[in-house]
Amino acid sequence: MLTTTFRRLIGCQSGATAIEYGLIVGLIFLVIVASVTLLSTDMSNMYNTVSNAATGNM
Known about the structure:
Blueprint: H1 2-11, H2 14-55
């Protein structure tokens, strides 16, 4: 009985697929965080430039 259960677990691929999907989601999340971080810095600089130009503080 234990041998049969062990053989079924070895042949099961659903756990490996779930891990692969988890890794893909994790990588996509990291790309999104990096993009938002880079864009937020650029956007902040842009808005500061526009604000300074509008108030005449250049």
